[in-house]
Write a structure and sequence with these properties.
By secondary structure, the protein is an alpha/beta fold. 16% of the residues lie in helices and 30% in strands.
Length: 271
């Protein structure tokens, strides 16, 4: 599959080649079953996450291959290229109406989906709660025992194919209405307070020590993060621009399900 996708990617005639179309469908099936992933976590030897650009290329090719079709669920109707996944009960997933998961996304048994949306290429681990009106964008990688609170926006990253998707590692807690986009990497057991906005260019400033330490695109493991702002000069004057502040480190003993309020309360900050 990999060789066919890589060879056909960017050509004009691949839709006329049955073997390439079959390879694209096979990649989507592999993503849907969890046998394939857009990005793989570090192995036991170490290193960082590995992006499989050929898998993302297959997803983009699938958008051209898949025909528009009518879909219905009771009185609800859709018209789209990508069908929805089948029976969540058979998959061992609790899905509260109208939770929606597109074909090509994988939700591990034991996850809980409140009324929410999981897009193609995404991976959601066991024990994770995707709360009400939270969205998991295309290719996002969400670990196990994560809590995505109400209204959280996890962005999708499809292009370019080699770009790192948004990654939220095991045990992280993302507060209500927080936004994580553009391939930001939230490491294990980190806590993001409500309304934190993280883009690739957002300064993530550790203010817990005597001197600030600035990160971009990465929240360190067990960091406790809240919204912040800092002054920036423009031709018209000096204004406050958004940033994120690391105010401390989450304690190992903090229970994952209540960690947001407890962790922030420990630093004198409301959740």
């Amino acid at each position: 599959m990999r060789e066919l996708i890589q060879e056909a990617w960017g050509t004009d005639d691949w839709l006329d080649r049955a073997e390439v179309c079959e390879a694209v469908e096979a990649v989507i099936d592999g993503l849907d079953s969890g046998e394939l992933r857009v990005a793989s976590p570090p192995d036991e030897i170490g290193g960082g996450w590995t992006v499989h650009s050929w898998v993302k290329s297959a997803i983009l090719m699938y958008f051209r291959l898949a025909p528009m079709q009518a879909m219905e669920a009771g009185v609800l109707k859709w018209h789209d290229k990508i069908p929805l996944k089948g029976d969540p009960r058979a998959q061992g997933v609790r899905a509260v109406p109208p939770a929606t998961v597109r074909r090509g996304a994988f939700v591990e048994p034991g996850a809980v989906l409140m009324p929410s949306y999981v897009n193609i290429g995404a991976y959601v681990g066991s024990g994770t709660m995707v709360d009400t009106w939270a969205t998991v964008g295309s290719c996002a990688q969400i670990g196990r025992d994560v809590h995505l609170s109400g209204g959280v926006g996890i962005g999708g990253v499809l292009e370019p194919p080699g770009a790192l998707p948004v990654i939220v590692e095991d045990g992280a807690f993302v507060g209500s209405r927080a936004i994580v986009v553009e391939g930001v990497h939230v490491e294990r057991e980190a806590v993001l307070g409500a309304n934190v906005v993280l883009t690739a260019s957002t300064p993530i400033i550790d203010v817990s020590g005597p001197e600030e330490v600035v990160h971009k695109g990465r929240v360190p493991a067990r960091a406790v993060v809240i919204p912040g702002s800092r002054p920036r000069s423009f031709p018209a004057g000096t204004y406050q621009v958004p940033c994120a502040l690391i105010i401390g480190e989450r304690k190992e003993s903090t229970d994952r399900k209540t960690s947001l309020n407890e962790a922030l309360r420990g630093f004198g900050v409301d959740g």
